[in-house]
Design goal:
The protein is α+β, with helices and mostly antiparallel strands. It has 2 domains: 165 residues, Regulatory protein AraC (Jelly Rolls); 107 residues, Arc Repressor Mutant, subunit A. It contains 10 helices and 9 strands. The chain has a 5-stranded mixed sheet with strand order 1-3-8-5-6, with no helix packed on it. Strand 5 and strand 6 form a beta hairpin. Helix 4 packs across helix 5. The chain is globular, with a radius of gyration of 20 Å.
Length: 288
């Protein structure tokens, strides 16, 4: 499609201290021009007013107030405003941070982002759309006024929107949305395995088996969709979780290293310094 000609990759630079970003916008008059990009971090766009047309490489749809459209890792997408008085709020989230609402893990928070675009949840009922519209406006209002604790409140409202949309999906074992396992959907079990077993180093063999793929096929699909090798991704998840623990708990550095799969504390120091450009001790001291 010529709409995707010249589309650029965008890097949002999210990290453990900035797990998401919020951007709002308003157009009095839609000019029908296409805008688009692709990026590693998943994103959801809540339409607050007006109408927006969104194109993916093999699917397109139109979204109105109270509806959400989703993009997954490096998924090219373009959009245009098709009417006047259009407003929106776009929430971009670190892949490693989605669903970090300990101790609850029964929800597959990633699913709405990584289903095929034709299968992603899209509320049509008036009541649900009004609820999502209210949450989207509150996220934007919090970002504008920044009251005490605003990021925590935004984080909870972001997950509430994901949950309300998630519940629209068919969660029966033979649900139709599970039939399509192309692209990143094929490697989601490995991503979830890494996040659920942080105290272990998940091997390539284990990850491939979890996805019912050969090692070579798994590596090919993972690297193509995630723009990084599986081993590098798994290490990033473990080390970013370790940083979160150091910043938000009273655990010792040795305890954090063990909980994040580092048998040797010296190895943890080396990997941490390489990724964060400071030692774990220096990182902890910055918290105080």
């Amino acid at each position: 499609m010529d709409k995707f000609t010249g589309i650029k990759k965008v890097f949002h630079h999210l990290d453990i201290d900035t797990p998401f970003s919020v951007v709002g916008g308003y157009l009095r008059e839609g000019k029908g021009l296409f805008h688009g990009d692709s990026h590693y971090a998943p994103q959801m766009v809540i339409v607050l007013s007006g109408q927006q047309e969104v194109y993916y490489p093999d699917f397109h749809d139109t979204f109105e107030a109270g509806q959400v459209w989703w993009t997954s890792c490096w998924e090219p997408h373009v959009n245009r405003v098709t009417g006047n008085y259009f407003s929106y709020v776009a929430v971009t989230i670190s892949l490693d941070a989605i669903g970090s609402l300990v101790p609850f893990h029964e929800i597959d928070w990633l699913m709405p982002f990584f289903l095929h675009p034709s299968e992603r949840p899209k509320p049509t009922g008036r009541k649900l759309r009004c609820e999502i519209l209210r949450l989207g406006r509150e996220i934007l209002r919090l970002d504008e006024h920044k009251p005490y604790g605003f990021q925590t409140m935004q984080w909870l409202k972001i997950h509430e929107i994901i949950l309300k949309n998630f519940l629209l999906l068919d969660h029966t074992p033979d649900g139709g949305h599970r039939a399509r396992r192309s692209g990143i959907i094929q490697i989601l079990p490995a991503i979830q395995l890494v996040k659920s077993k942080l105290d272990q180093v998940i091997s390539l063999e284990e990850a491939a088996a979890e996805c019912s793929l050969s090692k070579s096929r798994f590596s090919e699909i993972f690297t193509k969709n995630m723009n990084v090798s599986f081993s590098r991704f798994a290490l990033r998840v473990r080390i970013s979780t370790a940083a979160h623990m150091l910043r938000n708990s009273n655990l010792s550095i040795k305890e954090v290293a063990a909980r994040c799969g580092f048998q040797e504390t010296s190895h943890f120091y080396h990997v941490f310094a390489r990724n964060f450009k400071c030692t774990p001790n220096e990182f902890v001291s910055q918290r105080n």
